[in-house]
Amino acid sequence: AQSVTQLGSHVSVSEGALVLLRCNYSSSVPPYLFWYVQYPNQGLQLLLKYTSAATLVKGINGFEAEFKKSETSFHLTKPSAHMSDAAEYFCAVSDLYSSASKIIFGSGTRLSIRP
Amino acid sequence: SQTIHQWPATLVQPVGSPLSLECTVEGTSNPNLYWYRQAAGRGLQLLFYSVGIGQISSEVPQNLSASRPQDRQFILSSKKLLLSDSGFYLCAWSPGPSYSEQYFGPGTRLTVT
Q1: Cα separation of B46 and A20, whole Å?
Q2: What is the mean pLDDT of residues B77-97?
Q3: Pairing mode, strands A73-78 and A3-7
Q4: What span, in angstroms and rounded, lies between the C-alpha atoms of B1 and B32?
Q5: Does the pLDDT value for residue A95 go beyond 90?
Q6: B49–A42 CB contact, under 8 Å
Q7: Which member of B32, B88, B104 has the closest CB to residue A100?
Q8: Chain B interface, mutation test: which of A41, A42, A103, A109, most B Cβ atoms within 10 Å?
Q9: What is the pLDDT of residue B32?
Q10: Residue B96 pLDDT exceeds 90
């Protein structure tokens, strides 16, 4: 069965510092992977997706993620944190055994930005 | 472009009362539709999904039900709410085929008192 594990339920960085949110996946076949962001009291917004075209995926708001098969990882990074990046971030993987485009979500990482 | 709507945005209901949450999608046809619940401080739980009109799959047994009376309309219902039904309810759609990303609505905050 496929799954994703997000390391760290809460990450705090200073404004201007590197943001690194960790995600590891488990899948017996090449996965499709996603990162979503959720601001307070809002729905989830797709940041980026990996569909095997390129290992480095660029998303919105300056975020990017690198697919590393050898490490089964798909970590999310941003070179310089901004106050507006404070939110909950979810890593997710396509359920390849579903014909209904189901997605399996990680438990989320709350990102806080210190002034 | 496609948009997804949910209403109401917030709802406060007493225990034992009925529930109806509505979700509609514009700008696409035959989408896959999903209902999720997010309890306070917790992750996403998939409740129901639908691949077509009248086709509903349930992920978790509970006192909620879902219906899809029209291609782009998805309704979440309950006959009698429980305190444990409180949470943030999210509707999502995907264009298919398999492995597609999902796009989320703004959510409904439900508080059962």
Answers
A1: 27
A2: 92
A3: unpaired
A4: 17
A5: no
A6: no
A7: B32
A8: A103
A9: 94
A10: no
